[in-house]
Request: fold
Amino acid sequence: MSSIQIKELRGGYATAEEIVKGVDLNIAPRDLAIIIGPNGAGKSTLLKLVAGLLKPKNGLISLDEKPMALGDAQLACRNGLGFVPQEKNVFGSLTVLENLEMGGYLLKSGLQQRIEEQLQRFPLLKKRLKDKAGSLSGGQRQVLAVAIALMTNPTVLLLDEPTAGLSPAAADEILGMVKGLAEDGLAILMVEQNALLALEYGTRGIVLVAGKKIRDESASSLLQDDEIRSLFLGGGKKH
Reply:
């Protein structure tokens, strides 16, 4: 099992741009850390910087205290990092089986074993193996997207708004699934707009404002905080 350490991470979509402004995080195994904050706070940008999809301007990212090369998504994946983007996270024209095979393209061996492990973990996919991913419901596509990310057996999983566009029931199912993955030992860092619901499942809550981390504490304490509920969770006072 692994953990991820992020120190003084800065960057954005251009070399001189700073959307994320010096964020420090330490996500341990079994952590389900929920990033919340207003629109434009840099939440998704932070995940892309960590995943290697954007090259940070500055900072250090380590897995088990071993520094990772910055801005290299393929190497990050090889080192044990899985990332599920909010959009375009499955190949709609390919079957469920073909999507899983694509998720394992970095594997040198054991592809079939990894596929079988995902089908045992997510039985609904086994029933839809020959179906095109584009024919799945929103919740089923999110399950497939997570299964694709798990094909390389990551120890750290990044999720960008996995419940976006889902019904309340489907959102509950997805968050329950994610919580189970954390309980199995994964270190998970997740961005969620549905902050109130996500914090009910999470172990930690991280508040990002204007690219800076302003709070990092237990999810339950953030849920009880009247100011946080008013500003970011769309709720009134907790009685």
Observations:
- The first strand starts at residue 4 and ends at 11.
- The chain has a mean pLDDT of 92.
- The CA atoms of residues 43 and 144 lie 23 Å apart.
